[in-house]
Design goal:
The chain is α/β, with parallel strands linked by helices. 33% of the residues lie in helices and 13% in strands. A 15-stranded mixed β-sheet has the order 1-2-3-4-5-6-7-8-9-10-11-12-13-15-14.
């Protein structure tokens, strides 16, 4: 009897008796509605719900594990760890949501990543990505676990541990163990010093790092920032709230990032004309956030909007809470080299007024999201005009043009609160 002759209702019972590679081989011949659950590549485990131990052979293609919800206390938590560890034998990506990261039990990673199953499949598939939305429970002990994995032949290329409780020693150990990291997020790690970040960056390979987040590293200095210059392949960099950085220090480092696509410098108070000129020459830059930088005035913004600027690929620009900008300065965006390709613009809590907004509406034809919230100079007359032009009943929502000749050309999300 061939596989196609087996009654559909019996196929699931047959799968229960198949092991590992046999399942993968037979799935190619089964009906789609049966194979779909078995061919899934990602698995979300809700820690708030009962989790029953399931043989790994039932879902042999799972590569990504998402843990959501809160861990149980006591023996229930240990049982969760035991049950989940079976899935990590061939797991490539392990992610924790905020609740799972906040309630992570002590030695959780040690139990999960050094389980017998991991050792059995060591060298077949290796863990490449470990990410947390919030990691206050991640400590130097967990950094040692990553070092043990490295010694066993497993090396991460993505690590996100925002708000982790690690010291310079733990960060240095990660640098030694994961020199090939491509994505790193160590934002808001309050126990890490500027010197620790500098030593960490020295350990990383210059050809690998493409994405780095140092948000909230309040002690970060120009000297440590200078260590980033070797990462020529940097594409996404976030330095929000790094208030000790100088305008000159930022510019001298950014000059080395010719491939940079996304940059967050929000609330970096020393940001000024030197850095803005440097940014204007970045031809690959698509997203720029300089919200809360009060030293950015009309003269600084004009450097970005100059006809000689090379940032023609800019799609997203955030100027929120830049208190030194005037309405005329913001209106200058309409004559910038990126005006016709700009899709998202935030000028909330600025001097933007009716004249400026009307100019932006007419010129920025591809704009999809415009944030004018908390702009005191926006009057009810502009709101009424927008409501007449677009099919919206209030100042916030998706605006579809009533007339095909109306501008902008794309649906527009407005926030005029």
């Amino acid at each position: 009897m061939v596989l196609q002759d087996i009654p559909v209702e019996n196929l699931r019972e047959i799968l229960d008796f198949l092991e590992g590679n046999d399942v993968t081989a037979v799935l190619r011949h089964l009906p789609c509605f049966i194979t779909e659950p078995y061919l899934r590549t990602s698995l979300e485990i809700n820690l708030n719900k009962p989790f029953f131990k399931l043989p790994f052979s039932k879902l042999p293609c799972v590569k990504q594990i998402f843990l959501v919800g809160q861990w149980k206390d006591g023996w229930k938590g240990r049982r969760q760890l035991h049950n989940i560890s079976q899935w990590l034998s061939r797991c490539v990506s392990l992610s924790f949501d905020k609740a799972a990261g906040d309630t992570m039990p002590e030695k959780c990673l040690h139990t999960l990543l050094t389980s017998p199953m991991m050792k059995t499949f060591q060298g077949v598939e290796t863990l490449r990505s470990l990410t947390f939305e919030h990691a206050p429970s991640f400590s130097d002990t967990d950094a040692e676990v990553l070092h043990q994995l490295y010694l066993a032949g497993n090396e991460l290329d993505e690590l996100k541990i925002p708000s982790a409780c690690i010291s310079d020693d733990g960060l240095l150990m990660i640098g030694k163990s994961c020199a090939s990291l491509r994505v790193v997020d160590i934002s808001y790690c309050q126990k890490v010093s500027s010197e620790g970040i500098s030593l960490f960056c020295r350990r990383l390979g210059k050809c690998f790092l493409e994405e780095l987040s140092l948000d909230g590293c309040f002690v970060l200095s120009d000297t440590s920032l200078w260590q980033l210059r070797k990462f020529k392949n940097m594409r996404n960099l976030s330095l929000a709230e790094c208030s000790l950085l100088s305008d000159e220090g930022i510019a001298s480092t950014l000059q080395n990032f010719n491939l940079l696509e996304s940059l967050d410098l929000s609330w970096v108070h020393n940001l000024g004309n030197i850095s803005l000129y440097c940014l204007s020459q970045m031809s690959h830059l698509e997203e720029l956030c300089v919200a809360g930088c009060f030293r950015i005035g009309d003269a600084e913004l004009s450097l970005l909007c100059s006809p000689l600027a090379r940032c023609r690929s800019l799609r997203t620009l955030d100027l929120g809470s830049c208190s030194s900008l005037t309405e005329a300065g913001i209106g200058g965006i309409a004559s910038s080299v990126f005006a016709r390709t700009l899709r998202e613009l935030e000028v909330s809590d600025t001097a933007a007024g009716d004249t400026c907004a009307a100019t932006l509406f007419k010129t920025c034809q591809q704009i999809e999201c415009l944030d004018l919230s908390e702009c005191e100079h926006i009057t009810s007359a502009l709101v009424s005009t927008i409501q007449e032009m677009y099919s919206v009943s209030n100042g916030e929502g998706v605006a579809e043009p009533k007339d095909s000749d109306s501008l902008p050309l794309t649906p527009l999300f407005l926030d005029l609160s």
